[in-house]
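S1.2 Input.
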Amino acid sequence: MQIDISEKTKPIVSVIIPVRNEEENIARCLQSLSEQNISKDFFEVILVNDHSEDNTVNIAKRFGQQLNLKIFNLSEGETGKKEALSLGVKNCKALLFLTTDGDCVYSSGWIRNMLLYYRQHKDFLIAGPVYFHPPKSIFQRLLFAEQVLMNGVSKAGIGLNKPLMCSGANMLVEKEMFYDVGGYEFGKQLASGDDVFLLHAINRKWDLRVGFNNLSDCFVETSYPKSFKQFFNQRIRWAGKTKQLKSSFVFIVGVILTLSNLCFLMALPMIAYQNFFLIIVVVKIFLDVLFFYLLKPKKRIRFFDVLLLSIVFPFYSVIITLFSFKKRYEWKGRNLR
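S1.3 Output.
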């Protein structure tokens, strides 16, 4: 289906934001949307409240005059991001929708450039880059570099028609195609994975109809995990959904990555005894750094940060892979699977 996104069609796109306990972030998020370089008549904002226990909704209501804002609440018995997104899609007026998160802020051209990319390519699903806010500590610098790497991997995979991942914090979807693949039916047994399961569902049904918009003024910035525990649970959540994709390509990539990390970890304590193990470590680090820069990241990253990430990543990657086999994890005050 080719959708008319001329100025006669209003709203052109619906921005859907599922929220739960985002009182610290929602004002920045909505203020950023109010500063988009596109007329407010061309987009609506649909905020879906997932039983927030703080002041999120009251803060959001203050933006009723600045934005075409609608607020919906999940009913009793409905919980989770997929339920919130589904309610948002059901109530959106536009034939296209953007998904994002309540802790995000946006480049001023985000909505305009996602629509321009859609007009040019007519992809059913378009992903875009998501970055952390500018880093202030070494831990944040490592997370920032890793996120840049993930954006590059997402872009490369989609470009090769072998999608691996994408982020639901920056994603445009045709509403009709969303329903045509059953919405979030694929992977419904998991609380997370709304983004990657939808990406794979659409790609399986329509070959070459997913894209990645890497324009410099089309990015989303998100918040860092507040603690190591939150970071750890977030990564377990990401790793857990990968196992459910049933993609041979994703499985092979995962096996290669895990084995290379294990070889690196086993070689490290042996470098004092044989030069062969030192060669393994050096080659692994060199290939990691080379791969990072071959992805041509849009954001400038210090070489030291890339080097340090290549050393640290195998440690927590293997640990998180092992913990991802747990059935449950904690997220936003809930115990999920």
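S1.4 Remarks. The radius of gyration is 20 Å.
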